[in-house]
Amino acid sequence: MKTRDLHTILDGFQKMELQDLASLLGQDLSPRLRKSQLVQQMDSYLRGEPRRWMSHLMERDVRLLRDLVHAGPDKVQYLDFADYPSLLEVTGIVEYDDSDENYHKVWISREVYDIVSPEIEKVIRSGEKSGQYELERIGLGYLNLYGIIPTERFVDMIMAWYDETHHGGNYAELTRMLHQSPLVKMYRYTDSWGDYVCSPCVENIEEIFTQREALKRKRFATFTHQQAREAGSGAPYFTIGLKTVEGLRLEQMYRRVGYEGYDLVKAEHDTWMEAQYTFGINEALFQPLMDSPMSHELDSASWLACCEIVAQYADSVPKWVLCGYSSAKSKMLHAEWEFWKEREQEQTESKEEYPHWNMPEPTISDGYAGDLNSDFLPLGFAIPHVAPNDPCPCGSGLRYCRCHGKYLS
Q: Does 336 share its domain with 367?
């Protein structure tokens, strides 16, 4: 387990990156300083004022720090691969190791433990009491519902929430909190598309803007502050619409097929994320169902019923490319459901078992699978050895380790 000291970590950044990091963590550094001076000042700041710089972190980062403090210095915690990394991991303040594709290993060094452990609980209490974390959850909620939203509209919605919940309140304090909010600092962009803020879960900003333009989508859906709060809680595993009829059915179904606890939360989150891809066939939408503990026990009719629940949920949730409207409300066809319905009919007619179960072991010859007797691929299709995170050769759009690499390993 390799651990670096803070000075070495900071010295690995470029000068401009150090200035950006300082800004995120609430420290103003003169651009006229040499890099060595910036490193020294940041090193002193992190050591000397932990309560101050931790108060500039997003709630998710602070709670991750607390979990690692409770585990102890140099104690590895095994986490899942979230859709977006924490600032602590990106900066190296928290150590991580992804050499094993099955585990995301995270820990803190003795040095960082000694710095943060005396203050971490105070920082969390302060964030809750001041309303900083509540503001962040509301902000994240709106961003998760819309995906991308103009900064001006985002601020207006935050102001409306603040006015409703604080009955006028201290707008100077709200302005200060927004100004120093890591959410706004990290996820606000200005480019050819304008000045906007986007959800940390969004991977391809350009694609969303392009699809909105093609669909001529400019009108945004309306949500309540309660909907925003629900959509912004549980970072980094957000899930939208679980309290709707479709969401409740989805959760009940996932429980029936064996999901519980953290695995249930992750399955629901992954389903919501895949539901954002509105156009074309998206088999990944059904991947959590395929991976469920009891999926192999489902007969054909039960499998189809589960797929329908997933599809109806996907149709009901706000879509990023539709500016927060659902595909059901936009009267758009649900390609995923039609695809699986046709596929089930084909399987029934041919009287063959569903192709995902009981797939044979491949015959390896010169690094290729010579015989794969599955409807998922043409007979005799050769599968080259591919990296686990590369696209599967079958063309499903999934990573190899989540598709044929999973069943043929």
A: no
218 and 145 co-located in one domain? yes
Residue 87: inside a domain: yes
Q: Which residues of the chain, if any, have pLDDT below 50?
A: 332-337, 351-384, 407-409
Q: Assess contact for 56 and 180: CB atoms under 8 A.
A: yes
Answer for the pair 151, 197: CB distance below 8 angstroms, yes or no: yes
CB atoms within 10 A of CB 173: 13
Shared domain for 404 and 385, answered yes or no, is yes
CB 278 within 8 A of CB 327: yes
Q: Are residues 109 and 23 in the same domain?
A: yes
Token pair of 11 as six digits: 């010295």
Domain end position, chosen among 123, 153, 182: 123
- Per-residue pLDDT, 355: 44
Kindly state whether residues 104 and 137 are assigned to the same domain.
no
pLDDT score of 282: 76
Overall number of domains in the chain: 4
Which uninterrupted H or E stretch holds 66?
Answer: helix 59-71
pLDDT of residue 99: 87
Contact 236, 81 (CB under 8 A): no
Domain around 316: 245-350
Furthest CA-CA distance within the chain: 74
Domain assignment present for residue 280? The answer is yes
What is the SS3 assignment for 320?
coil
Q: Yes or no: say if 402 and 287 are a contact pair by the CB < 8 Å rule.
A: yes
Pairing of strands 364-365, 77-79: unpaired
In tens, the pLDDT along 91-150 reads 999 999 988 888 889 999 999 999 999 999 999 999 999 999 999 999 999 999 999 999
Tell which of 231, 264, 287 closes a domain. Answer: 231
Q: What's the pLDDT tens digit per position in 307-341? A: 999 999 999 999 999 999 998 876 544 444 455 55
In a domain, residue 105? The reply is yes
Quick check: is 93 in a domain? yes
Tens-place pLDDT, residues 9-30: 999 999 999 999 999 999 988 8
Residue type (1 letter), 254: Y
Does 108 share its domain with 23?
yes
Contact 71, 89 (CB under 8 A): no
Is 98 in contact with 104 (CB distance < 8 Å)?
yes
